[in-house]
Amino acid sequence: MTVDPYGDERLVELYDEDNRPGADHEYFLKLADGATKVIDFGCGTGLLTRAFVQPGRVVLGVDPSATMLNYARRQPGAEDVTWIDGDAGAVLPAGDADLVVSSGNTMMHITADDFPWVLEALAAALKPGGVLSFESRNPAARAWEQWGPEATYSERDTPAGHLKEWMEVTEVGNGRVVFDAHNVFEDGVDTVYTTTLYFRTVDELRAGLEKAGFGDVEVYGGWHEQQLTDDSRLFVVRATKS
Length: 242
Known about the structure:
The protein is an alpha/beta fold. The chain has helices at 9-18, 23-31, 47-51, 66-73, 115-125, 149-152, 202-211, and strands at residues 37-41, 58-63, 82-85, 97-102, 126-137, 154-158, 161-173, 176-184, 190-198, 214-220, 234-241.
């Protein structure tokens, strides 16, 4: 098992290829219009982070994976971003950011015990009227039921050699899903990293945000601000610091 879920450089180098910019990046970049300071919380390889860079704007990328950040720092344009190695505790409570974004599963990695103080830390980084936006999966869609070995097994050729990969869910309960991601390169070693995701309902997300000092909480069913329904697989959350 690896402590850093992206501790294998070979996997990190594949991350941007597997997570190309799409409607999510377009949504977050549009939110940044007019912003002079943007924080990308859980920035990973910094693909979205670097897209925020423009003259006169301060951009910070925060992530607890040293492997991810080391890769991010080597990419073109990385010198225009301030990279911070750590979790929400490393985000200064400066109260001057216009926007904090959190893409992918970042907010779903946060435990129930940590969720309140993480939201408070992000609120403290924002100026009054600043915006926090992130995505989360709808627990009612039960996405984990599609994460078994048969549904997720694949093989492909990569710059690091032939790769076999699959997922296996090991635990489900109380909104908490644990799964193993298997990665086997040509050396035959099965590099397994375990991920725990916390699925939250809209009511739980609203309550947490409001308690942390956010108002005007909006939750959409997709990146084009689709109306939220019971069948929505994704929650796109946007909240304003009161």
